[in-house]
Amino acid sequence: MARDDWHPDRLADLEGRRYLVTGSTAGLGFFASLQLAEARGHVIMTGRNPNRLASARAAVRRLVPDASVETLLLDTSNLGSVRAAAATVRGRAGLHGLLLNAGIVHPPKHRETTPDGHEVVFATNALGHYALAGELLLPLAAGRGRMVWVGSMSTSMWPYDPLDPELENGYTPWRAYVQSKVATAALGLEADRRLRAAGVPIASLVAHPGFSIGGRTRGIVGINEPSLAKRFTDNLQAPITQSKERGAWSLVRALVDPDAQGGDFWGPSRIVHGAPRLATPSKITRDPEIAARLWHYCEHATGLPWPYLKASRARRRR
Ligand SMILES: NC(=O)c1ccc[n+]([C@@H]2O[C@H](COP(=O)([O-])OP(=O)(O)OC[C@H]3O[C@@H](n4cnc5c(N)ncnc54)[C@H](OP(=O)(O)O)[C@@H]3O)[C@@H](O)[C@H]2O)c1
């Protein structure tokens, strides 16, 4: 498929392939789940709220009646929930793709912490995904799979503080978002270096959706029902935005395109919108020292070092 022609309607048949998507109850995660299901992949749709999860599965089934989808409760801000969900997935067949999408995009006004004691935006967007990906290393190695971390343009718009990833000092909602997204992208690139070095057959990639907003996205009952006022204001931003459906394209391309490789960064051709292209991650997220420091921080904060050795042995036994 020529790069300019990329479209999820023309994906290869994904029958027999299994994908897990975090945050699939709304936005990019919902549309990524839908696009994978349309290509006949099996999708494990995950979310923190059982009612929203049921609505999301019902919406996929309305649009794709023969979709192969299941749901699984998974709150990425809660390490116990991450462990429990991962244990369920490990008890089943191998996994071909993991889309680490869930995120708080409108952080709380004042710093909040999770029951595990972590700043909630960092915990939800970055730390929970570090833990989940590590816990799913074996099924991903068995499926020779990929993991895709969801980054953001915001990482080049604001300074990052490597000494205070959870913003114990100087919290603002915007800083919390940027800190979490720098961490997410840096961890995604670092994961690929570590997996390669350990000989684990899993690729780690980063993708971003440009600027994707609900008021420019088709209405779907229970998933995206913007008010007329939101439609109006979001459409005023048309030149610099796209729909969440389109935004999901970069994520899905990174997850399934045979041309995509570990260490890649995928995003819209015109940065804020457009068809997915290979792009260059922001400088801070490419910094190996920042990434190594974050990795060490996550290992310590979760108490979950990644099981590289077991994952590389899983490959040798196949
Ligand atoms: N939209 C953009 O322009 C843009 C740009 C750059 C990066 N991103 C990234 O793309 C990802 C998705 O953004 P979006 O625009 O689709 O946002 P969204 O419409 O607000 O959807 C966020 C999704 O994440 C879920 N979520 C939030 N906290 C969670 C938790 N603790 N556990 C599990 N799921 C949780 C939400 O579930 P609930 O239904 O339970 O709330 C929802 O399904 C985020 O990581 C965001 O940082 C988005």
TrEMBL record:
The keyword Oxidoreductase applies. One of its GO terms (molecular function) is oxidoreductase activity. Pfam families: adh_short. SUPFAM superfamilies: NAD(P)-binding Rossmann-fold domains. Keywords: Oxidoreductase. InterPro entries: NAD(P)-bd_dom_sf, SDR_fam. It comes from the Bacteria. The keyword Repressor does not apply. Belongs to the short-chain dehydrogenases/reductases (SDR) family. This is Oxidoreductase. It comes from Microbacterium dextranolyticum.
